[in-house]
């Protein structure tokens, strides 16, 4: 699925999470991809497994938020998922990181559902651990360059 702009999809998720934010500060959600080239648009059931990890942490102004993302990226190397894209809402308050995994690893619908749930649990655990570690670190380590983050990156929750 090379035709997806994963950074733009991540920005769309960040915008949606920002608009729908109730009390969830951070988390992981499975996404359903949409093929908008068909009439009517359809869900892509045979596409890659994609989950979005998000935080409502003031990414541009809070060094701990940027450190959380950095630690999360390091932890991704331990799991089966890989980073597809990253984006921040226009106001910089919400960030989203897209993680993809090989859906063909499991043959049955039940196996694929289990894979999605296991990846979601892994990502939520990695996110909360990264957030806790970032909160415990001194401010200088959380943003060693002192520059702040200016990284940028539509899918539906599934």
Low-pLDDT sequence parts: 146-158
CATH C-level class is Alpha Beta
User: Which range does the strand content fall in?
Assistant: 15-25%
Number of helices: 4
Largest sheet descriptor: 5 strands, antiparallel
Overall spatial form? globular
CATH topology: BirA Bifunctional Protein, domain 2
Helix-strand pattern, N to C?
Answer: HEEEEHEEHHE
CATH architecture label: 2-Layer Sandwich
In the sheet with the most strands, the strands line up as: 5-6-4-1-7
> How many DSSP-defined strands?
7
Termini gap = 18 Å
Description:
The protein is 39% helix and 22% strand. The chain has 158 residues and is of the alpha+beta class. The protein has one domain (6-157): BirA Bifunctional Protein, domain 2. The strands form 2 sheets. Strands 5-6-4-1-7 form a 5-stranded antiparallel β-sheet. It has a two-stranded antiparallel sheet with strand order 2-3. A hairpin with a 6-residue loop joins strand 2 (34-35) and strand 3. Residues 146-158 have low confidence and may be disordered.
């Amino acid at each position: 699925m090379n035709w997806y702009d994963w950074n733009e999809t991540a920005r769309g998720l960040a915008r949606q999470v920002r608009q729908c934010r109730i009390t969830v500060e951070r988390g992981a959600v499975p996404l359903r991809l949409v093929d908008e080239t068909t009439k009517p648009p359809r869900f892509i059931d045979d596409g890659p497994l994609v989950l979005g990890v998000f935080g409502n942490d003031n990414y541009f102004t809070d060094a701990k938020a940027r450190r959380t993302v950095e630690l999360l990226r390091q932890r991704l190397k331990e799991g089966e998922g890989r980073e597809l894209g990253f984006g921040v809402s226009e106001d910089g308050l919400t960030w989203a990181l897209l993680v993809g995994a090989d859906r063909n690893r499991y043959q049955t619908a039940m196996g694929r559902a289990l894979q999605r749930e296991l990846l979601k649990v892994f990502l939520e655990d990695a996110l909360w651990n990264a957030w806790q570690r970032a909160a415990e670190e001194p401010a200088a380590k959380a943003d060693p360059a002192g520059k702040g983050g200016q990284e940028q990156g539509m899918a539906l929750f599934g």
